[in-house]
Amino acid sequence: MRRWAPWVVLVLAAGLVAALLAGTRSGERLAPDNPGREGGQALARVLQSQGVTVRTVLGTAALPEQVAPGTTVLVTGTAYLTPEAGAQLLDRTREADRLVVLVPGPQEDLGTALGLDVRTTWPTGARLTGACADPRVRDGDEVVAWDVQLDSTATSGAVACFPPSPGHNVGGARAGALLTFPATTDHAEVSLVGFSSALTNGRVTEAAHAALGLRLLGASPELLWVTPQPGDAGQGAPQGLWDVLPRSATPAVVLLGAAVLALALWQGRRLGPVVVEPLPAVVHAAQTTRSRGRLYRQAGDRPHALAALQAGARHRAAARLGLSPAADPGALVDAVATATGRPRDQASRLLTDPSATDDTDFVTTARELRSLEEGLHR
């Protein structure tokens, strides 16, 4: 080992230098010059071949003070989108044709950051269809890779496409993987895209992903492709080493770490085999589960357990019927009774009454509650 260690260090050092001298291709997710699976180079090149001028902008803070008309602005992530940064983004793009923001996952403060009525939740379902009046979405368009569901209660013309299930938005709900807000005096048309994964190099050729990307981004002569940067969040935002380190330098850092490790192995002494110290006691997972079950049974808190089941059932029923999660329980009971054909008193008891006299009554009520939910899916 000692004889070969200098050569190992030399090879790693050479690799480090090569990485530092490599090209400036970005490693950022969905960057237009990233040829990797998570990059956006494929979509950017097709847009350029169709005559769209694609310009890369490193961070929303680097946008022009006022983006000119005839321009679409794409922001490829929301990690650094604070309320201050969001307000600045909307102000600078006010005269643009449209602003497209890719939302890679649920984010509690997205609506606050952009000043829009929008909430994000984890996606449900694997294949979505357009089902909306947005002219950029055609009949038969499908998305098979999406990251977040977008919901809004706005009454000012917001359009939701690719809902979680067919007919979800028939009752007036606005939920889907694409949510568009019309232009106002305060901002340009804003499209929030919950299927950013569908636009990556690795998945853009699936389903209607490529066509949707071209329609969303190719309607204007110029496209400003914004890759968010840590500086967008402002000076007061906490940042770690990986936040400020350029992504293209990551391989160099890894190689440097490997070189330091090899040097330590070369110079250091072996510490001998690892000493295994047995724990005082080994508690198996199954034993833990059974013990907790006995505690719950001894407590006899059936109403609390049944109330938890009913809360989950109400949430799923509201989503199935296109109602708000905060809908009045009475209105939800009426809707469930109508949809399932059950008597209203029975639906109300199953959804809102957590009383259970004994274990048998608890199990019976839980089964009836499950049957009631299954009736909504028929």
From TrEMBL:
Domain of life assignment: Bacteria
DUF4350 domain span: 32-217
One Pfam family per UniProt: DUF4350
Protein name stated in the entry: DUF4350 domain-containing protein
